[in-house]
Amino acid sequence: MRQYVPSERGYDLVRSGRADMMTCHDVAVAPLQLAKYPMYEGAYHVFFNKERIGEWKGGESLRDRSVVWRIGYYAEANFHVPIQAREVKTGSAALGMVLLGRADFYVDDLSFIDDSIRQNKIPFNPAEYGVEVAGYRTYHPVLLLSERGNKVRDLYDNGMEQLIREGRLKPIFEKWGFPYPRYSQE
After folding, report:
1. Delimiting residues of CATH 3.40.190.10 domain(s) in the chain
2. Tens of pLDDT along 76-115?
3. Looking at the domain that runs over 42-136, which CATH code has it been given?
4. What are the angstrom distances between the C-alpha of 1 and each of 12, 18, 19, 20, 59?
């Protein structure tokens, strides 16, 4: 059975053994673990006021700035410079914080930023704001570090290895228009 829940709820369900797997994230803290192979690899972006931030200089533009994201979606470790991190419940709330000048950047996957803009009720001039790539990461299934969790992880990893080896995984990514992760057999 599949259940859609916020990230923190997903972590709680896996930690308590009420779910076998959460999809997906780039870090796991004990008693959780990541599967070996990512389900997805992609860029994450930032939304910001161009006048307030100035010329985009890549990740360096984030240095010591306030960065907001949805609870459980990112961590300070995702950024290569020190930031002032804040978490909020929704992407719309994060976008609103930038629009109201209460945060410098809203970070998310581009599709979520676009959704937040569509749902937004605060008037703003889109020409005054920018969206740039802030970094890249892989998104792995998250499982409990337990006998059952290890069995599920092994089933997933072995299945992925077989699909990769037989060349059957790449066509699936192409069919759905997703970038193919840089898989390697280690």
Report:
1. 42-136
2. 989 999 999 999 999 999 999 999 999 999 999 999 999 9
3. 3.40.190.10
4. 17, 11, 9, 10, 39
